[in-house]
Amino acid sequence: MSAVNDRYNHLLNKARDAMRCGRCAWAVQSTGEKVAVALVLNRADWLEEIGYTIAEAIERAGQDWVVIIPQIARQLAEEGI
Questions:
Q1: Are 12 and 72 in contact (CB under 8 A)?
Q2: Cβ contact 12:73 at 8 Å
Q3: Can you give the residue range of the structural domain that contains 27?
Q4: Contact 40, 61 (CB under 8 A)
Q5: pLDDT tens, 10-58?
């Protein structure tokens, strides 16, 4: 499997966990995962909780993750989770 697919599946699973279990699943993730998941789920309140603005979160997530965030958000919306 390619690195892009690995990253995609990793973030997709972290976002699914946070959608299903809420803040408790999100709270145990690494800071990088929290930032990316909050962006996927459009949770500015979660970003604020860990001291990030949206702009800072995008910078922290990095280009490799930022490019897949919209795709993951669409997939989750299609899944109806």
A1: yes
A2: no
A3: 3-79
A4: no
A5: 999 999 999 999 888 888 999 999 999 999 999 999 999 999 999 999 9
72 residue type, one letter: I
- Entry pTM: 0.90
The 3-state DSSP composition of the chain as helix, strand, coil percent (nearest 5) reads 80, 0, 20
pLDDT in tens, 66-77: 999 999 999 999
Tell me how many domains the chain contains: 1
Task: Write down the pLDDT at residue 4.
Answer: 74
Number of Cβ within a 10 Å radius of residue 37: 26
Instruction: Say if residues 15 and 75 touch (Cβ distance below 8 Å).
Output: no
The continuous run of DSSP H or E covering 11 comes out as helix 3-21
In this structure, the number of other CB atoms found within 10 A of the CB of residue 69 comes to 19
